[in-house]
Amino acid sequence: MILRNLLGRKTRTVLTVFGIAVGVAAIVALGALGEGFIQGYGALSGGSGADVLIVQDDALDVIFSAVDQDLKITISGFPGVEQVSEMIYTFGATDGAPYFIVYGYDPEGFAIDHFKIVAGEPLSRHSLRRGKPLLLGKAAAENLDLGVGDSFRLYESTYRIVGIYETGAPFEDGAAVVLLEDAQIISGKPRQVNAFLLKVRDGTDVTALRQRIEQRFPDLTATTSSDFAEEQDMLQYVAVFTWVVSLIALLIGGVGVMNTMLMSVQERTQEFGVLRAVGWRPRRVVWMVLGEAFLLSALGGFVGVGLGIGAVKAVERVPVISSMLPGQVSAKLIVQGLGVALGLGLIGGALPAVHASRQTPAEAMRHDGGAPGTARHVRIAAFRDVMRQPARTLLTVTAIGIAMTSIVLLGALGEGVVDLMSGMAVGSGAHLVGLEADASVDLTKIDESVVRRIAALPGVRGAEGFLTGYTSLGDLPFFIIFGYQPRSPMLNDFEIVAGASLVSNRQMLLGRVAAENLGYEVGQTMRIFETSFTIVGVYETGVPMQDGGAVVSLRDGQKLFGQAHKVSFVGVWLENPQESEQMIQEIESRFPEVTVSVASEFSEGLVDLEMMQASTWGISFIALLVGGLGMTNTMVMSVFERTQEIGVLRALGWRRRRVLGMIVRESITLSLLGGAAGVVLGVVLGYVLNLVPGLQGWVQLQFHVGLFVQAVVTAVVLGVAGGIYPAWRAANLLPVEALRYE
Known about the structure:
Elements lengths: L1 H6 L2 H36 L6 E5 L10 E2 L2 H6 L4 E14 L2 E9 L10 E5 L11 E6 H7 L6 E4 L2 E10 L3 H4 L2 E4 H8 L4 E2 L1 E6 L5 H11 L3 E5 H4 L4 H35 L1 H9 L4 H35 L4 H4 L6 H27 L3 H6 L14 H6 L3 H38 L4 E5 L9 E2 H8 L4 E14 L2 E9 L10 E5 L7 E5 H7 L6 E4 L2 E10 L3 H4 L2 E4 H7 L5 E2 L1 E6 L5 H11 L3 E5 L8 H35 L1 H9 L4 H34 L3 H4 L8 H27 L3 H6 L2
Parallel strand pairs: 4-9, 6-8, 16-21, 18-20
Antiparallel strand pairs: 1-11, 1-12, 2-10, 3-4, 3-11, 5-8, 6-9, 7-8, 13-23, 13-24, 14-22, 15-16, 15-23, 17-20, 18-21, 19-20
Helix pairs in contact: 2-9, 2-11, 2-13, 2-22, 9-11, 9-13, 9-16, 9-22, 11-13, 16-22, 16-24, 16-26, 22-24, 22-26, 24-26
């Protein structure tokens, strides 16, 4: 009986199933990618056979860790330590891939042994006479169609592939391995490594060894290989992101289930009356409705699992990306996706089930069969039509509103990041701003000698570099530190609101937001990586990331982050600002390792922003897809229950075009109502998020007129897309058949 009821409205059932399926697919796909990412981090240590991993304490992520390479000798002398291997883990830009994973190892160390050579030869310094050697993972080689002997570009350097390796870990098999010293050049950290990998002797008390190392070196943290991935802050952010996206899709899908079951209950009220009259108890009615919702969700769950696995397989076929996001679909994840789907069915069907069971047989038998109510007090026809079924309208508007809220918040976040980048560039006072070509803004590094040579070019009045680095501090998981030359003109935008400006090393300027969040004042001492700084002033710039961070001298910044003689960005002042384009061409032709732009256009074309925008559109697409399915479902049911009314209108002379327009206008009205609700909720939530201390020190959500226009246009498009099939169905009803419809 349950199956028969669902098949009675095939279109509605299919739309609801797919609405749930998209949410479940998001859980499975994003969860699989997240698990793959976590396993990839585990491969950094566990796969090598290391027992203990040593990184810089308070480093935001292992990629930002900087450990003095010379400590290897001292650590090797600790009791119980059998071998020590250095490791570099970084990103390098190559053709078509701005984020390509690169490992650096000593060929003589134990850690490189787990890279099993399947073609060519192992990594060796003896290969240097034929060019810089590089090992390429088997997956990367297949994706990029490269083999032994081919050339491989990383930034501006060319390497020769001497071997193809395989480890069984997608994170590694989609990457490359170079000599330790070459990786240090790529990462800009001479005599620095990201981590030491330790192999200990049998019987060694690992916990005691870790404690001894951390007592001897307070700026380092030692962790077992099995615990390393769990202690990485970056992975926590990945997990939060995964669940937020999944929650959005599931909320919309859950509202869709409730909407479907509510519509089913309303149109079958007389049927429930008959069942109650022949002896069905309320509990039996509840179980029947819940059974239908449960079966709907189960179907959606299975379809969603299939879609999720398909999405993961699709990502695995994308060159390079598959190495950074290796999908790991586990049985636990599949069960979790199905469990969430079934939970949606129970929650979404509970209210309609209770509503159906509470109707007395007499009331149910007198029901008019689910015909829509009236809203005569509403003058606008489209609003009047959608208000005939207030509950259904509310649920549909809610689903669309959730989708629009996510779009507005993500758009505001993107605008905030753009404003942040633009503010940092323009606030420097320079006419031009440059960074390392093809590099992420987080990993860019430029040699100071390049800055000096740029400053010496004809037409350049001056050039100066500054550095950025990241750490976690206190309750703030994300804390940025800027390194500037004391008394630099680039500090003019840092308005001192307390104390004085920076004049020497071991001094610090603290952003106003950071000072308030951390409770520091002028005159106090702050420790960063076991280095003490005296806070000489508090500043304010109006740029969240700057106001939530700190400024130290360039030399101190370079020491903190292991970037000797490196800067992250370069500001250029011109003799004639009108010659900006000519100077950009001149600088980039002389220094191909640097890309330069006008300060006001700095955020345009940044790889990081392009990837963030792509992620934003992906999340928005998921939300809109689920919301669009719900919209179509609602309008299809509206057409079903108004079939006789449409037949009358057609008999009175209404043309197909007029009927089609009526249904599409109703669909657009629903979308606009949901869009308006979503925009309002998005702005309110954005305001609340801007008050969160951790977010204040990173970025502020920015709401621009263009964002609201985009939301309105999106709502209209969603309304048209969701209403076009129901409108076509209504317009093609024959008057005679429609009038006979029961």
